[in-house]
Amino acid sequence: MRQPSVISRRLAAALAVTAIAVGAAACGPEDSKAGSGGAASAPKKGGTLTVLNSSPQEDFDPARLYTSGGGNIPSLVFRTLTTRNREDGAAGAKVVPDLATDLGTPSKNATVWTYHLKDGLKYEDGSAITSADIKYGIERSFAAELSGGAPYLRDWLIGGADYEGPYKDKKGLDSIETPDEKTIVFHLNKPEGEFPYLATQTQTTPVPKAKDTGTKYEQHPVSSGPYKVVKNEGDGEHLVLARNTHWSAATDAERKAYPDKIDVRSGLDSAVINQRLSASRGADAAAVTTDTNLGPAELAKVSGDKDLAARVGTGHFGYTNYIAFNPKVKPFDNPKVRQAISYAVDRTSVVNAAGGSSLAEPATTFLPDQKSFGYTPYDHFPAGKNGNAAKAKELLKEAGYPKGLTVTLTHSNAKDFATSPEIATAIQEALKKAGITVELKGLEDNDYSETVHNVKKEPGFFLGGWGADWPSGGPFFAPIFDGRQIVKNGYNFNSAQLNDSSVNKEIDEINKLTDLKAAAARWGALDKKVGEQALTVPLFHPVYKRLYGSAVKNIVISDWTGVLDVSQVSVK
């Protein structure tokens, strides 16, 4: 996930543990479905699902959204070539066909991908969805006035880097072909075996050219999904969706579309959201949230109430919080200093600072601990539960600091239990035991982002985090460690500024693989290899705890989003 001004990119899910609009990856709800608000009974159609959120659903235009797997609310309106599998747990980390008949047919070197559309696909007005509409939908995402979406198509498509969208260039992109109304062909400038994952992004949503109203399209985008927009007030603050009667379940195996109406109300305080879900009175009994977690104090209260505890969904997003080093800044140019800090970290205290073991799990690998990412267990600098101060001191002595050293740790002042003062203080206290004096430098959120992701300003020692655009090693690992992705005049995420030809070559080789399982194994092996350099210190993976109303049934939390999937729930 990229960062703020590039938001809703990677860091929309990245910097805040308490509010994640994109979603996360999950182990499913703690309770069984039989305990989820009466969910033992078969779900039924009807009723109104209320969504209570803190952040408004801004930029409700498929070109401008940067959402993993099409997002949660957006995927009720926007169908894409492929989508996430709407199942609990690991099965939900798989990519499946949506508008397309399959996951696409790659050329031998994975530089050409061909998709065929299903029969019977229609918009909300009953007109047919065509391959030309998908091509146009992608092309308009290149327009400067509709920026904000994922950058991959611009990076991957031949000619994408120079294309300015259909408003300026009516000829369109030659690298997207539509030989007939049901076929679309993509020509890439390099092998990309994970193209089926990219095809889940909302940029592959069909947009009928005749209905395109440019920047006003977000007010009433033409629906290809089970619901259509009937109200959009306050730039997504109040969104009302009603059934799209021309949507057919026969063409869509993923979205259940049980409620008759979806009423999304945003701009609410997180404490108010959790209070309303807890009380579950009136319309709130049929309410959920897609962006508000339970905090440590709220979780303690909920845990003591059996009925409330049965209404908590638990998920694990593909995300890692870590310490980042910039080896171009002394003393972090010395590997032994980085190793010493790796040994000195007390992950138990860090987890406690992040809200406790219910909200964070200790991490020793950069890749998330999920199979789809290629998770390969390793712990190159075993610190145990409370840090290994003795080993850290030994390494510092070898590094030329027998009496210890003083360093500055940069963090955000945002109270997000991720890159915030609580985490920084826990690290400060642990490193003190190893003879390392840590001076804390807190920055306001925007300053923090602009500083740590700027090559010219980047500090040597700071707190970071990275989330998944989709549940795979590619978009998780490469932006952090591929030397060709170092950005010198913009947002840079390769904090170590690593440019290792062998690492870059292996990334290219993995990208050629269309066998996603084989690719995952290679990503895991590469993570283990790069981990030996101590360029980061993985700290923890966040856990998401979210309440839902007492009348909400059919709870599904996948290892792709980690949050309740609104396309599956019923309220009757």
Description of the structure:
The structure is a single chain. This protein is an alpha+beta fold and 572 residues long. The chain contains 14 helices and 19 strands. The chain has helices spanning 131-140, 152-156, 195-198, 270-279, 296-303, 306-309, 335-344, 347-353, 389-398, 421-432, 445-452, 473-481, 501-511, 516-531, and strands spanning 48-52, 82-84, 95-97, 105-106, 112-116, 176-180, 183-187, 227-233, 238-243, 261-265, 287-288, 312-315, 319-325, 360-362, 405-412, 436-443, 461-467, 536-542, 544-547. Strands 8-9-10-1-11 form a five-stranded mixed β-sheet, with no helix packed on it. It has a four-stranded antiparallel β-sheet with strand order 4-5-7-6, covered by helices on one side. A hairpin with a 4-residue loop joins strand 8 and strand 9. Helix 7 runs antiparallel to helix 9 (389-398) and helix 8 packs antiparallel against helix 10. The longest helix is centred in the C-terminal third of the chain and has 16 residues, at 516-531. It is globular, with a radius of gyration of 23 Å. The protein starts with 47 loop residues before the first strand and ends in a 25-residue tail after the last strand.
